[in-house]
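2 proteins. here.
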Amino acid sequence: MNIPDKNDIWIGLFTHLDSVARGSLDLLLKLKGMGIEEHGKEYFIDDSTFKTINKILTTTETQVGGNAGNAAFFLGNLGLDCNLSAPFRPERLMNFYAGLPVYFWGARRKTATAGIRKKDPCFEHIVIKLFKPLSNKGRTILSFDEMTQKGELDKGFWEKMTKGIFLLSGFHLIKSKKRISEIIDKLASKNMTVYLEMGEPSSSMKFAVKKLLNENLVNHIGMNEREAQKIFKLNYQNLKTKSEELECGITIHTPDYVTSTNKKMLRSSIDIVQAWAMGSFLQYKQVLSLPLKRTPKGTIAGRALPYLERQVGLGDAFSAIDAIRLFQPKKMENLISRLPFYGTDQFPSYL
């Protein structure tokens, strides 16, 4: 019988697909005409706008999407077990997790292949990759998704999640504050160690954070610098003061540096995610030889990568490894000791 353990990691709220397209000047001008002018953020659009944009895009690839989906895909490829919330499980989505130690719940724990529900709808978000000199913002995400907007939950996941670490994200996508309150009330009945990964600083995200903190349901918060500033007026300089005020730990992660109220093994966490950004953990040893960027005092610098194979989901990947290093330090130490051998017979590889 599969019984949840206090060391299990649970990842929610949402999992979907991302349709990826490369940005062009012509495309950005068309988006500007639709009111999408600021890039490097996520826009929530209506069904009509979503369909219009889809018609003018040339999709280059389809990949795992969703904060939870990205985090679980990253951990699964590292060979670390996790339980993933997937309210809908179409074959196209679940095939990405085939062979990975990422599990799904119904009456019992299932692998991705066993968990496929062929009649489920498949939700996709549009990700537009942006490159210099056109833009240095990385990517723009355009979302229309009834699953996330309504706050649909994976019933099996929530029924079986009784103890362990909960990597929680996705509130920024939910429209109804009433639905957000219902989900947080459900969380309050569980005995979880909660790592909250922030999302786009929308009114929904701000509402969720306030309620979670007021009810003392968060142990640690991860966010990028824009989310930190917009929601908490927080930066790397007032991290300790804000952490004491909020009564929880904090990590700020950016493309250039990371800082945290607990810096133990933070250097290794950055290097692991940067290897992932370069394409695979096989790049880990190469990453260790790369020069560090110049960053503010007291922060841990990222490395100057020669190229990026991945741009989307790196913040989600970082939150996943951050939760491991904070709440499962022995597992993190073991992972670090084995990473130089990744891809050999000394370490399992799913790549």
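next one coming up
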Amino acid sequence: MKLLDNLGRVLLLVALAYLGFYVYGLIMGVFSPGEMIGFTVGAVACVIAGVVHGIRIRRAMKGPDRARITHQLQKYRETRGW
């Protein structure tokens, strides 16, 4: 289960990095009109995945697993130094 949690965090960071590079390329005018379609589809997929992830986290925090999730988050924050 820990592997899936870590994989989810990595995929979320990859999606955020992709969106950052997408916005940077969009502002700088790096993409040709033909490339814009593919990159935009990828960016929309990343945004949808992020929204779905947020909804799942919000529902999990309202459910019976709230104490377990909160305990894991506190442990994660302590290892990061918060």
